[in-house]
Each structure stands twice: as structure tokens, then as C-alpha cells.
Amino acid sequence: MKAVIQRVTRAEVRVDGDVVGRIDGGYLILLGVEQGDDEQAAAALAAKTAKLRLFRSESKPIDRNILDDGGAALVVSQFTLCADTRKGNRPSFVGAAAPADAERLYEHYCTALREAGVPVETGQFGAMMDVELVNDGPVTIIL
Known about the structure:
Low-confidence stretches: none
Helix content: 10-25%
Order of helices and strands: EEEHEEHEHEE
Largest sheet: 6 strands, mixed
Number of helices: 3
């Protein structure tokens, strides 16, 4: 499982022009689910995400977690994070989880993040989405 976490001042996801998820501050999380991932991996990644200290404190530029800062998460499924680009110029996605498994684990990650106390908005699994964000910092971390 791979997550690209961007600290944002705002972010939203639109499907067919309609906003399906929006936050005013926190993390935009692009989540890729790979073959072999399971519920335990999703829960562990959600716990790490909730505790990850990427927000400013009065004394340090990166010191507080999303719960300390009162932010929310916008989680967007993105199988392209699972691309294998070692051969040729066209990415292979054979390492990505099957859609049914990926959706189940994506939902499990979102649920675990909510259970950790983080407000969660989502994109629409499997849809073509327009993602708009204002990166804060910029701060971008890959887990």
C-alpha cells in the first residue's frame, strides 16, 4: 500500500463537475493498493497517517499531527501509484490490487482513519476525478 500525503490549505475532488469531497485544511492523501495488501496493512497505514507530524507548532515548522491541528483528510484512490516503470515507456499496473480488493482496502483505510479521530472526505472509487489542491509548504510525504 502506498500513500502520497500532501499538507494542504484546501482540496476538493470533482466527478463530472460535481464536488464529491472537500476539505479546508489537512491532508490530501492519494492511496494506491497493491496485490498482497490486507486489512492489517490498511489499519497500520491509517494509524501512521493520523500520528504523522507534518504541521507547524509555534517553535517548529513540522511538529504537530493532523489531530493536534484540527485538520481533515481527503482520501483519493489512485492505482497509478502502483505503476511499474522499470521496463519500456508504458507503465505496467500488474502489481495493483484487483478493483474489488482495492476498493475494500481503500474503504478500510478510510474507516480506520475516521476511528483514529480524523474527519475524512473521499473521492469516488474508480471514477475519473478532477483533484484540486493548494499545497501548504509545500509538504509532501510518501508512505
